[in-house]
Amino acid sequence: MSTTTAQVLMKKGKRGAAAYIHADCVSGYPQYLGPLLDVLLNPGKAIDEWETIDWCRWLLAGGRTPDEFAAIVRSFDQHDKCGLVWIPRVVAYRCRTCGISPCMSICRECFHRGDHSTHDFNMFLSQAGGACDCGDNSVMREDGFCSNHGNRFPRPGTAPAELMCIAEAMMPRLILRLLQHFRENSTGESNSDSYRQAVQECEGYVQMLMEFNNMGDLMRSAMTKALINPQMYLNLVSPPHPDTEYGRYMTLSHKIYELALDSFPAPDPPEEYRHFPALAPRLKHTTLLEEFIFWTFKYEFPQNVVCFLLNMLPDQDYKEHLTRTFVLHYARIPLVLEGSADPDTLSNRVVHMSVQLFSNEALALRCVQSLQLLHVMVLSLRLMMAKVLVRAEPHAPAASRHRVIDCTRRVMKEHCYWPLVSDFNNVLSHRSVALLFLQDDALVHMWFEFLSMLQGMNVNVRETGGHIEFEPSSYYAAFSCELEAAAYPMWSVLAHLSEPAHAPLARRLVAAALRSLRDWLHAVGFTAPRLHRAEMMHASFHFPLHRYLSAFLCAAVRCMQVRAADVLPPAELLALLAAHPLRVQSLFYEILAGVWVRNGLQIKGQAMTYIQANFCNSMVDMDIYWLQICAAHLPADQFLDMCIDVFGVREWLSLTPMSPAQTSEQYAMVEGLLTFLAILVSSRTNLGNDELTQSKLEVATLLAAGDKTHSQLLELMPERSGNAHTRNFEAVLQELSEYRAPPKGSESLEQGLFVPKPIVWEQYYDPLHLLQRAVHRRDFHTSMDRFTAYVREKQKAAGITVQGALWPPLRPAQAPPAAAGDPRQLCASGVLHGALLAVLYRGVRRRHADGAGGAGWRAESAPAVEAPPDHVLALAVYLLATAADLANERARTHNRDVCLAEGARGGSVRIAGVPLLRAFAGGAVCDNARAVLASVPPPSLADDGHLHRRPQHDDSDPEWEGPDDEPRPASKAASLPAASTALAVPSSLHMVRDNSVSDDQSENGGDTPTIRALESGSGESQALVVPGLAAAAADLDLQMVAEHMTLAIPENTLAQLGLDPPSEPIAYEIDEPEWRLTIHEESPPRAALPAPPPSSDTQMQVHTSNDEQIPVNESIISLLLKLHSQMSGRLDSFALEEPAPTSEEPIGDGPHFIGSLLHKLAALDARCAGAVQNVRRTLWPHQRERQAEQRARERREKEERSRKARERQQLLMREFARRQQQFLSAMAMEVGDGAMEWDDDDEPPEPDYDCVICNTTTPTSAQDPIGLVVLLQSTSVLGHRRRKGSGVARLALSESERARLAAQTGATAAAHHYRLHDDLDLHFDQESWVLSVSVGWEGGVAAQSCGHHLHLRCLRSYLRSLAAPQRPHNLHVERGEFLCPVCRQLANGVLPLAPPPPRSALPVPPLQPTHLALAAQLLEVLERARDPPAPVAPTRLSEATGKAMEAMTSMAGGKLKQRYGSSPGAIFTFMASLVRTNVECELVQRGGSLVEQPAPRYKPREECIVPLIAVVGAHSGALAAAGVQLGAGATWRALVPGAAATPLLGAASSPVLSDGTPARPVPLLLRDPTALLMHFLLLGSTHPPHMDLMHFTCVVRALYALAYYQVVNQLCATGALPAAIAAHQADESPWESGCESGGLRAAAQLLLAALAGRLLPDDAPGAAPALHAVELEVQELVVPFLRVAALLRKHIYGGELPAIRSEQEEFAGLLRYLELVPDTPAALTADCALWPGSAAAAKAWARQLAAASAGGQLAVQRVMRSLHVSWCGPALLALPRDYDRLFTYYHERVCLQCGAVPKEASVCLLCGTLVCLKQPCCRHHQVAEAVQHATECGGGTGIFLVVTSTYIIVIRGQRACLWGSLYLDDYDEEDRDLKRGKPLYLSQDRLELLQAQWLAHRFDHTKRTWVWHRDSL
After folding, report:
1. Nearest alpha-carbon partner for 1403 in 1196, 1191, 1206, 1584
2. 1215 CB neighbour count, 10 Å cutoff
3. What is the pTM of this model?
4. Which ranges in 1248-1383 belong to alpha helices (H)?
5. Is 1193 exposed, middle or buried (0-12, 13-18, 19+ CB in 10 A)?
6. pLDDT digits (tens, 9 = 90+) for 581-592
């Protein structure tokens, strides 16, 4: 075939050629398709040529249209799987109820077609793209399939064979053409930009292939066959090629392909893994799919190509081939990521693809078994990280062979590793794959080698000089890496180890972790469990190997019945393994203590991240568990000594003098140490708690720190493996909390909160666990405040009064599982007891020095001792209580022998000269609590060794090894080194180790180990040297008694310690049954202590080389008693005779917990009880009797004081009654004499005002005026009122609803008035009709005030101060904006207050105030010529009045000036409309009527109306004085014709103006009576608004008559009234008779007669209404005028509005209030308020209207019918209850202006218009669409609902703010940006709040988060 054949075919047309070729293909031997495709798919043509693409569509259809062919192919679709692929930022759903894989997701259509209403689902905005899993039973359960997929859809028939013949023949060529395009574009520059350009060039071609694929299974099968057929690939691309033009092209193309393969980066694996197919150095492709994947990798996963490949995944064969090919290329992913310019986008696209392939367990398992997928993943990760390694720093960097990841490199900071670890974690989530991983030792070793790269990364070096200059930001990269690359895979594997059968696997993992840790320790050169000072300056939070060991050990012990002791290493290695996690804990507390403050905020960020919810399970919990294991299996003294050294508090705990800096630092670290130890012994997070218990503890901890929303609780729950949703979260939350809905009517936009139930505080609140979880330390203090408030409330309810501050309720440490070991053994340590004695000692000294507690001891003059606060003392008491509980538990479980000497009388040990932390040789808490520490050596004598480094001895060698340079004595008695202890033990004392001898051994004379005593040369006693940590003496209970020990301490030693030298040495004498305090006389210091005489009692001898000692002279029991007394505020406050607390709840103050501890000690050992009694008798002899006597005396004094107080009160009441009676009598006499009468001739007093700036109270004046602070706003609220009966305006959710909303928008008040004005303009002069209406329905000005006043001169100074360079960023000072100095509300102007005019300046009502007389007087004022403005200097008041009017004019919308012009009449109409706008806005706030209603959310502020009228009236007077003809006099003459004929005294002296009459004036019956009311109010008085009430009533009465006849005329024009009269001609009803005018019928007949032939009735008037109904309609149309008049009367003349209880009473109530009718209870009709001559006037008005309508009857008729309208109040559009409906309709809706789908679609809630928010596409004159729409629709105020975020954006002028969300979830919580994706429902309360703020113009006052939008929204 040749090109000629193709040209002939193409001349047939697309359809004809396709039909011809289809027939050729059906025959079985297609001859013409190939040549035609050679022409169409010629590589020399552009691939995205539209004509080529269209030809391909028609060819594929085979003679049909492409749409017909697609429909036929889809009809045979099997609908097994959906497979819809989406790109980022597309809405999808995830149902955790239906999902099998955590990566499951379904499209919106499948979700809505399925039944997920009761499931745990969420909607989400896809970040990386995805594919729909509906129909795939390997990913989701079948009951979650939609009705179109899976087995639910009926199966179609078999497709005819000829249907797909062309498609099968074309597909290989179509795909080959795309590969050719990729080959051609690979020869240029290899960078992301060139790749992106090449992909964009084939966008249309790939889209065509996507369209073909979307036709369903048949077309998908044709495509996949072409992709996975090796023979087809061989035929198409493999050489040799024929010597033709196309063959030469393919040869060149093949060379380009080979070069691309060679240049593509390849991995460099270790030699033993090079045979893996996926790690081959060069790729080899055998199918089109394999090459397609290669180019996908090469071109950095283009989005359209990825979607094309994923669209075919429903084909199972293709999915397996794609997965295999993807794995073969997988090792190249790290290399592509490293070279990409945008690794973040590339990572998303990689995961978009891989997550679809590896979510199938069977497929993933096959890849692991056949292609070594796990090895490839781990090696790829290792090879990527191996390029960014640096030498480790923590230990001897020069000698260290360990290398760790450099967190500052791009791979780490941009998370280039994320796709790899995400896929690895996804694969390990499959149980079968995870078990294979655990069984492969080499793979596990390889993984641990990778983890060792993370071990010790991101080392922090402590700054000790100046503050760090540059704070690194790489720390979060380190935390993210450990979490994602180490912790998540760990949790994925551990999720499958849950049975005892898995114990061997867990043992293998533990052994592997130990081997890796041993290698790591060797690599870093860490051989001794001691960190040097230089090493302490380096610290890291990252030790994943330790945490792996901890996690797998925890799982083995908890779930697999493995004993920890069986798998732990020897003690030497265990101590080494404990050092680094222990250093992490000390680092954490150092950061909290401010030790690392010079390292900047980033170091604190590391500490916060370490315990943050996403990290705590994987980091701090694992560290704590490992340290608990170490504490349980290492000697307690050794472990505690390590802790003290690592925390750096040895000197503080040894009472060693230090510098102030050292003291402060160690003091802060003591709290950290005690907190850590308390957590260590009490935490059961991984040491006993099951999942349910731990969930309760976590939820209770969160609730204790503060009330939280549901999402906050869910977000802050500790997570594992990226899933924060625990299985029992909802049940636990329901058990522990109560839901508190947001309060109704609040304006703070509160959300639903969960508050703790009492059970939280009583059972679950654990302050120690809260400290483990509290990212901010203030959370702990907040929880304690909340706990205290609960306890106080409970005590108050029970009638209990407690004064002391509560201590944290530290929960007793429970016994852990036996297999793990017991970390509580730390509490049975002499080192700990010595440390706690130091804490208690300092606590007593501090309280003593501060005088707290009132114990009555002498205050000393020594410097203040740095001492712990109460919560540190609480921790110390808690640890002692734990030791007592442990001793009690051991006593119950073991038959324990107690060491008692014969004849012992409760004596105690007395220790001196031994370092404090070595003072207690044993760990028995009872013995150590009784022991009295007399003194400790100074720092020069203290041994700087550490207990855990001393040589260990067995039980047979009780001697200590002395120093090398000290000769060994010849005798058997060991020579004691300095600061050692010698014990004299009687021969009758039997010492038996507890826990070492069983009952049967002791009873049957077994081989009982005993401690041998050495002869000391004395016949009565033997000397025994006891080593500090000898194994034989670890648990001994020793009784040591000393007597007559006197200390001599130099004063300088005490001064260094900060202690006062005692004036007399103090010693406890303990050789008698009762203790007594013996004060020895002062004596000069002695060189050495004398040797005590031989005695039968137990003695302790101290040998020192220096007699300088630091006195302590306390025991733990004595310190506890003193603390109890100090905190109780009384001496001898504790007594064993008082019962111990009965409640087991750890709730109480300090004395409560201390008393409980003392009771425990006394119960454990009678000697402790005796010691308590001895100390009490020594310190406070006979104190109880004295206290009882004191209490009795105080009780008697209190009763006496109460009696005297009652007597004084009675005396005062009698005196008050007498004086009250005298005052009433005097007042009665003055009233009778007329002394309180006011002189009517006096001028009313001028009101005084308080200036809020200068704080002076003065009246206002012309030269020093006072102004009212106001905020002027443009408003269109009134224009959004809708006609009654038009229905509720709802936001459109369909096309039909959109058409209905458009019709309702035309029925708004603004649109109505614009049409009315247009009709008036057609027939009347503009100057006449402008003065007949009101304007400003859109773009009017509303004034608001906070009610504060200020001098205008003070305001000028205030504004100058705001104009300084440090001006507030949110104020536009140049435009006059400022904040009220008092209430800080926004304001932008002042309304000046004019002084009241003198009474002589106002017209006096006539003696006979008839309506006509008052009207004549008003006419005189209206027609009197105003004095022209005198050329005098303007006053400050006049200047301020002018500025106020300028501000209001500039605030009004430009639409007013453009529409009505700037003539004097238009200006006057605008000024009059200002008053009306503000009065009607107030009416809107009152609910649209004056009927009594519940108080609105925002009470109308009434301060502005009168000052506003005064300002507007002044300018109106200026217009009149300037000679402007406003026609008010002529209007009044026509309104009250009899006024001109009424003579007035002195009328001749007033010149009268003759108003110019327009050529086409507007008749009175067409003029707005409310607008005329404003005119007469402004012009009818010389000093508006100071008009006499009678004159005001006269104006209202006259205008009411006009309004009445206008309404009657309107009803006549519509035909309703004539029809009603005709229907009731024969029916005489009460409505036909009434007042003087003759009733409604008479009014109608009068107007109809005058307008004979001028009214055009409606075409279809309908059924005739009842006359009574017409009367009610008249009242309804007249009452808006009465409301405005009533409000004006209230503001101008004061008083209260009438109490109107219903709408039916409103009309009559307003008539009576306005004094238009007498105050009688009779029923009123509308005509009852007409003045007597109104009928005659109405006849004249009707004739005027008849004459005016001659030339424009239709226009006049429209005006007549629409002059009065009954309006509904303005409201926002009604919204749907379910947000999903709104989101579905608007999310992808096209903007009508730009034709694109907005990225942030926003809907106006005033009119329903869709706008493009923040997009440049719809800008007009550089103003964004939302801002422009806010100006046009809302007069500068716009309220927009952002569809994609649910938030409301409010635009106010030049500002904008995020208001909040109207849609909340089931827990009344917002979901901003739809991050949680839960169903959202409309909050009616919030909608009402938003509407109330809009109606009241309160946005500026209620929102504080305004920003300048700069016309960009």
Report:
1. 1584
2. 10
3. 0.83
4. 1295-1305, 1309-1323, 1326-1330, 1352-1362
5. exposed
6. 999 999 999 999
